[in-house]
Automatic annotation (TrEMBL):
Gene3D superfamilies, per database record: Hexapeptide repeat proteins (2.160.10.10), Spore Coat Polysaccharide Biosynthesis Protein SpsA, Chain A (3.90.550.10)
Coiled-coil region(s): none
Organism encoding this protein: Candidatus Uhrbacteria bacterium RIFCSPHIGHO2_12_FULL_60_25
Protein's recorded name: Glucose-1-phosphate thymidylyltransferase
GO molecular function, one term: transferase activity
Keywords from the named record: Transferase
Domain of life: Bacteria
Domain Nucleotidyl transferase: 2-237
UniProt cross-references to InterPro entries, sorted A to Z: G1P_thy_trans_l (IPR005908), Hexapep_transf_CS (IPR018357), NTP_transferase_dom (IPR005835), Nucleotide-diphossugar_trans (IPR029044)
Amino acid sequence: MKALIAAGGRSTRLRPISYTLNKHLMPLANRPMLSYVFDRVAQAGITDVIVNVNPGEAETMRNVFGDGSRWNARFTYVEQQGGAKGIAHAVANAEPYLRGDSFVFFLGDNIMAGDISPLRRRFEQEGLDCLVTLSRVKDPNRFGVPEFGADGSLIRTVEKPDNPPSPFAVTGIYFFNDRYFDGFKTMTPSARGEYEITDMITWFIRNGKVGHEEITGWWKDTGKPDDLLEGNALLLDELAMDETSNRGTVDDTVQIQGKVTIGAGSVIGPNVLIRGPVVIGERTRVEQTYVGPYTSIGNDVVLRNTEIEHSIVFDGAEIDCGKRIVDSIIGSKTSIRSTQQSLPRGHKLILGDHGVVEL
């Protein structure tokens, strides 16, 4: 079995950060989001991985993740051709690399707890043509949604319906055999001009043997800022006590509570309280600051005279503002300072398109 990982798209719902950084490279618990998908694929024993990326981004992705050897795998980066025509089209784009093999198709912005190995085994042992994974959600109209018959069998899947036929979402983890490419040739774009993966699943239901399975544990589609923060929190919760470490320099006055990881070269203190789960990167300085639960602080960050909680701070940011910051995503090399440090007094804002500020 091979793996196809979707790591393209424009991530409009995560602007302005996604203007300059591919969503799949955004840090969750101080690791690029996509690395967690590679973990799951490697855990399932899959070593041949095709990564679908935007045109012109293959080298960027290769510079971050390399050739796959970190996961005992071989990565092939394939640039999307023909424009953004939907998820199902992204799979068709990789046909030369997948023909003749079964494969797991994993959306790179989906993170989950647990192991996909049992799903692989079921797909193979039952001789399925397609296996879809489901998760119960509060807002199924945002996703592809399964419809079931009276006997509980899967009838079809429909994309983002106004009136969802069930409380489940089709998650971004699918298993297919190479009949996919025969089915795709019968597809036409939807009303929104895309080739829908839900239409492909429905084709398999009508023309093959399809299984479905509800994911146990948690699953998160990190499509919006709130989802990104929740995904970060879920991953921080997964930190085991034996995974936490302190490789920095910590002042005697510092209080550390719960699961906290501090990277090499970081300096913490004086008068700092860190209440985990928290991850702090390398070469970061924290002084006169409270860092609260579910916060990830990147590398080369400066935090002074601040309280911050349930937030993600990218590399190189500097925060010295005397304020409490919550539920925030702070981009690379961002500067947040107190109005007391400049004249005239007031709130100075330099914001790009789609910025969000609460004063």
